[in-house]
Amino acid sequence: MKHYVSSKTRSGFTFLELLISVLATGILLVGLNSAMFVALKASDTSLTPARVTNEGLSRLNEMCAELQFALTVTELTATSITYTVPDRDDPDTNPETIRYAWSGTPGAPLTRQYNGGTATTVTSNVYSLVFDSLYSGSNVRYISVRLQIGADARSVVETGISLVNRP
Fold first, then answer.
1. Could you give the C-alpha distances from 24 to 18, 21, 35, 78, 110, in angstroms and in order?
2. Whole-prediction pTM value?
3. What are the boundaries of each domain within the chain?
4. What would the pLDDT profile of 20-41 be if each residue is shown by its tens digit?
């Protein structure tokens, strides 16, 4: 015995109904994607921990590139360092003097002064800067630098530099 199901009692969706639902879902997803894109563009991503850490690393690398060739260290405190490097323009003249300093106030800038000139801002929003050193006799042999830009403790970068031009 065969049972036939009439076409009027079949359950399911017609092709037109499926097509309309797929189109409606697509339009909804495009709208949500646009809203997310606008929200992302409006948010401030300049102070994300990764970006702040990369800025700190970049500033620390610049500082270390000069510091490793220091001839003498004339000032070394927890928040400032002054040192001389060989003259890069004319080797027969006097050494150049470079000074990095931070006031110790969270959020204040790190400054760099070159040959006693005007101090320029290296980076702003410094929350911590610590210089430390190891001596051999009266000469500085190794300097460690710890820098935190921004209030997030994850943005701390630290390095150590062995001085190349040791007396």
1. 10, 5, 17, 63, 55
2. 0.68
3. 49-162
4. 999 999 999 998 988 888 887 7
Neighbours of 149 (CB within 10 A): 26
Q: Each residue of 76-101: pLDDT tens digit?
A: 888 999 988 888 777 667 888 999 99
d(CA 38, CA 26): 18
Q: How far apart are CA 110 and CA 128, in angstroms?
A: 10
Residues 6+ apart with CB under 8 A from 127: 106, 107, 148, 149, 150, 151
Q: What are the tokens at 46?
A: 């300049």
Q: Are strands 108-114 and 96-102 parallel, antiparallel or unpaired?
A: antiparallel
Find out whether 82 and 115 touch, Cβ atoms under 8 Å: no
Q: What is the distance, to the nearest Å, from the Cα of residue 122 to the centroid of all Cα atoms in its chain?
A: 13
Per the structure block, which two tokens stand in for 95? 């050494």
